[in-house]
Amino acid sequence: MKKLLIAGWIVFALDLAILLLMVRALATAEFSDDDRDYAVSVTWTFGLWVCAFNAALLVGWWRDSRTVLWIALVGGGLPLLWAWTLAVQAITDAATAPQ
User: What CA–CA distance (Å, rounded) separates 99 from 95?
Assistant: First the structure.
């Protein structure tokens, strides 16, 4: 149970780091109006997902429920998978772009 809880908090910390990077990009990057609206929408959605994951993690911790902790861990891992695929796509696009 303790290892599952530690894994959940590590995933939460990684999700929070990605969210903070997204907020920083919103604050510093030059976007067109449409792109900025989309970026704000994605950032809000990601932030709400992280909040829901944190709430599930806290409930699982408070109630000592392995099932809820597993749900929270899988739910928290989905944004990490999404961020990973975006990073790989950006690297692939940069590598295959004509020079």
Answer: 10
**Cβ neighbours of residue 95 under 8 Å, at least 6 residues apart?**
none
- Whole-angstrom distance, CA of residue 62 vs CA of residue 15: 21
Cα separation values, 8 from 49, 50, 54, 70, 89, Å: 14, 12, 9, 8, 26
Q: Contact at 8 Å (CB) between 42 and 69?
A: no
Say how many C-beta atoms besides its own lie within 10 A of residue 21's C-beta: 11
Amino acid at residue number 31: F
- How many Å is the maximal CA-CA distance in the chain? 56
33-81 pLDDT, tens digit each: 888 888 889 889 888 988 888 888 888 888 888 888 888 888 888 888 8
pTM of the entire predicted model: 0.77
